[in-house]
């Protein structure tokens, strides 16, 4: 039978068509609603300011300095790893650029050196995580201390002030009313979208994030992929250093940029990227970056101080992680605990009864709509079904009571047995 | 089955702590050659006193790490508890000191319970949950302090003496550390909840099948970690007689570093209190040693980071070697 029968050709075409109702409740769309909501709040709170020329541009510019970190972090989280050394890597990259500018190297070379320094830091992380198989959390926590420590050793308390002049222009100028940094950010994110959603490399990331063992056995070089992703993260931290230094007005000291790693992770999580790996899209975090920029700016306008904003970032992180957990299973688990005395039998009885009742209710509505039947017949049928519903309810209650009493009896017996 | 005889020598050298001890002794000798001034009763006491807070945090972190999690919020909990204790204390000087100790513990327990609820019952990834609460607690510490500092003249004598006073020639704070070490050792080694913490860390599924409630045990571990962090917050302010919301920043890293140095496996299920004690002593000697060398204080962060990486790498390689040996003994590996 096995060899000769014709294997039916599998139809792999995507059947699901575009549905507006589904599209509107997608996580990315919800993020857009949040963004719009924040904008409305800002308009209502400070209408004069909002419509002033340049306000929106400066809001967007304020959020762009960590945007490359967000893009890199998406890939890292996709693998199920985490990188908390990004802020330190960013400072290392800025230091490399600044020092080589001080040494009088040509500008182009200095920028490249900064990017290479970032990539090297990423490669160090990647080697430890991928090849020595150390947990990413510990590696990046300690390298964040190590990298920042190295910067402290080299720079001590000095401030580097000599940076390429286009850094500040990049962060502060607009082309036709659109911030240059936003344009660059969107361009890079398009590249990242293509990599993640349209290339085999992106598919590999999803597989590794969902199950590294499966990935290994399907011929994916997990170590190499992880290494590449970490190097990419380091490189993006180097890119972030360009935005960051420009944003800071072209000066860098060793203590700058602490806490950027949390913001980057929070934005990714807000954008729907799972920290367990293998879940998420690039679109979400891109919108999340804008949300964070608007949120922080709005709070700043409302005189909320920096530390309270940190509380908010923390809560956003936690809530964004928790939202996907609120599903049918969780509701069922809570119901089981609260109403059904933690007993699956009682739960089953109740669920079955609820189903039956729903069936009868459906029948009632069907009967009411049925045009063929006479009014008296309809009334009789409806009455019959309603009686049945009542009886089902009573039966369910009775059974639940019996099961509960059995449970109590069991508990009592168990207690007796152990006390003897 | 053939009974395997192991010589006493092999038993001693096979112990993981033996390597640690050798490293510790080497460190002591190096330190003695370079900075002989380190070895006086007074300076050793001061060294331990200054690092005592790390020991408490490390014991708490150890519990969480053994369950397979990680607690990054301990330093912020320390700050929150310290700020609340000293702000209330400076305006209510007549209240006896033990009230503040209990308050510190209570704040820590609340913070730990929040973490434990998120991780244990809501099944959040520990690093994300505690990264979030790290910022939340630090922010609350700022709100509670209003950005103010508290200086030695604002601390009552009883409060400061709770950490800085001496009993039998040893600082009180060190007695507290010793008591915590003993209690933690008994708890982890000889009580059912302590053993359950190991069970959860070794294999969650088997533990659950064996009837251990994973959520409850994780919750307990986080509560203990929080309680010790809260206590250490009170002790920190009493020890230095100074308090501000940014105190103890990045202490959680040091606590984790001590655990890892002491052989606590970051993947969970492994680690003993004696290892943590040696790790604590080692870390205090290293930090003290660095601070004694002129011009080396900027190296502190880099050296600490490097130490953690090396310690984890050594841990992983030894674990792999042990695994290989076990497989060989079973004849599974040729």
TrEMBL record, chain A:
The chain crosses the membrane at residues 30-49, 69-93, 105-129, 136-155, 175-196, 227-246, 282-304, 311-327. GO terms for cellular component: plasma membrane. InterPro entries: ABC_transp_permease. Keywords: Cell inner membrane, Cell membrane, Membrane, Transmembrane, Transmembrane helix, Transport. It comes from the Bacteria. GO terms for molecular function: transmembrane transporter activity. It is a multi-pass membrane protein. The lineage of its organism: Bacteria, Bacillati, Bacillota, Clostridia, Lachnospirales. The keyword Transmembrane helix applies. It is found in: Cell membrane. This is Autoinducer 2 import system permease protein LsrD. Its main location: membrane. It comes from Murimonas intestini.
Automatic annotation (TrEMBL), chain B:
GO terms for molecular function: transmembrane transporter activity. The chain crosses the membrane at residues 20-39, 51-70, 98-120, 127-150, 170-190, 217-238, 250-269, 276-296, 302-318. Its main location: membrane. Pfam families: BPD_transp_2. The keyword Nucleus does not apply. It comes from the Bacteria. GO terms for cellular component: plasma membrane. It is a multi-pass membrane protein. Keywords: Cell membrane, Membrane, Transmembrane, Transmembrane helix. It is found in: Cell membrane. Signal peptide: none annotated. This is Rhamnose transport system permease protein.
């Amino acid at each position: 039978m096995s060899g000769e029968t014709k294997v039916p050709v599998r139809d792999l075409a995507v059947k699901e068509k575009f549905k507006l109702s589904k599209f509107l409740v997608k996580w990315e769309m919800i993020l857009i609603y949040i963004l719009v909501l924040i904008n409305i709040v800002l308009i209502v709170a400070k209408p004069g300011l909002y419509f002033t020329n340049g306000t929106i541009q400066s809001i967007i510019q304020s959020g762009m300095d960590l945007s490359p970190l967000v893009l890199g972090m998406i890939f890292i989280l996709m693998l199920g790893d985490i990188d908390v050394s990004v802020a330190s890597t960013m400072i290392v990259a800025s230091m490399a650029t600044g020092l080589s500018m001080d040494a009088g190297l040509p500008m182009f070379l200095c920028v490249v050196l900064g990017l290479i320094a970032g990539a090297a830091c990423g490669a160090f992380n990647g080697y430890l995580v991928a090849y020595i198989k150390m947990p990413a959390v510990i590696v990046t926590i300690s390298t964040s201390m190590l990298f920042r420590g190295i910067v402290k050793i080299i720079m001590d308390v000095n401030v580097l002030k000599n940076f390429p002049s286009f850094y500040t222009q990049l962060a502060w100028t607009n082309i036709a009313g659109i911030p240059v940094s936003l344009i660059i950010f969107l361009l890079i994110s398009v590249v990242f979208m293509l990599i993640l959603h349209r290339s085999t490399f992106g598919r590999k990331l999803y597989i590794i994030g969902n199950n590294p063992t499966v990935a290994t056995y399907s011929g994916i070089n997990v170590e190499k992929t992880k290494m590449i992703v970490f190097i990419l993260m380091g490189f993006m931290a180097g890119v972030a250093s360009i935005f960051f230094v420009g944003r800071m007005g072209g000066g860098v000291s060793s203590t700058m940029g602490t806490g950027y790693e949390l913001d980057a992770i929070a934005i990714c999580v807000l954008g729907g990227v799972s920290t367990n790996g293998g879940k998420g899209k690039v679109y979400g975090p891109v919108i999340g970056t804008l949300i964070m920029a608007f949120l922080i700016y709005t709070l700043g306008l409302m005189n909320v101080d920096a530390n309270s904003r940190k509380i908010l970032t923390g809560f956003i992180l936690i809530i964004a992680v928790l939202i996907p957990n609120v599903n049918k299973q969780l509701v069922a688990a809570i119901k089981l605990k609260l109403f059904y005395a933690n007993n699956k039998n009682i739960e089953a009885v109740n669920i079955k009864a609820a189903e039956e009742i729903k069936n009868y209710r459906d029948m009632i509505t069907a009967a009411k709509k049925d045009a063929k039947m006479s009014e008296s017949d309809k009334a009789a049928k409806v009455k019959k079904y309603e009686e049945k519903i009542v009886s089902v309810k009573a039966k369910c209650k009775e059974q639940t009571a019996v099961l509960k009493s059995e449970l109590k009896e069991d508990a009592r017996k168990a207690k007796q047995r152990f006390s003897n | 089955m053939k009974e395997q005889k192991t010589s006493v020598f092999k038993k001693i050298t096979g112990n993981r702590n033996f390597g640690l001890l050798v490293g510790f002794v080497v460190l002591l000798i190096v330190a003695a050659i370079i900075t002989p001034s380190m070895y006086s009763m007074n300076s050793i006491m001061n060294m331990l006193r200054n690092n005592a807070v790390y020991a408490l945090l490390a014991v708490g972190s150890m519990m969480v790490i053994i369950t397979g999690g990680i607690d990054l919020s301990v330093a912020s909990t320390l700050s929150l508890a310290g700020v609340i204790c000293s702000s209330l204390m400076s305006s209510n000087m007549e209240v006896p000191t033990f009230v503040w100790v209990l308050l510190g513990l209570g704040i820590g327990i609340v913070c730990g319970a929040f973490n434990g609820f998120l991780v244990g019952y809501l099944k959040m990834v520990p690093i994300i949950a505690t990264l979030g609460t790290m910022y939340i607690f630090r922010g609350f510490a700022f709100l509670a302090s209003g950005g103010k500092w508290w200086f030695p003249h604002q601390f009552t004598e009883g409060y400061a003496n709770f950490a800085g006073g001496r009993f039998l020639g040893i600082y009180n704070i060190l007695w507290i550390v010793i008591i915590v070490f003993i209690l933690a050792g008994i708890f982890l080694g000889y009580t059912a909840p302590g053993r359950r913490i190991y069970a959860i860390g070794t294999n969650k599924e088997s533990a659950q099948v064996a009837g251990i409630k994973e959520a409850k045990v994780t919750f307990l571990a986080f509560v203990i970690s929080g309680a010790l962090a809260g206590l250490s917050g009170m002790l920190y302010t009493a020890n230095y007689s100074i308090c501000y919301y940014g105190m103890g920043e990045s202490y959680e890293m040091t606590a984790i570093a001590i655990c890892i140095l002491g052989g606590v496996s970051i993947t969970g299920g492994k680690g003993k209190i004696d290892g943590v004690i040696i790790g604590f002593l080692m870390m205090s000697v290293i930090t003290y040693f660095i601070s004694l060398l002129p011009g080396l204080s900027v190296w502190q962060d880099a050296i600490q980071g490097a130490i953690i990486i090396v310690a984890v790498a050594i841990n992983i390689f030894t674990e792999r070697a042990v695994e290989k040996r076990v497989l060989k003994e079973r004849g599974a590996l040729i």
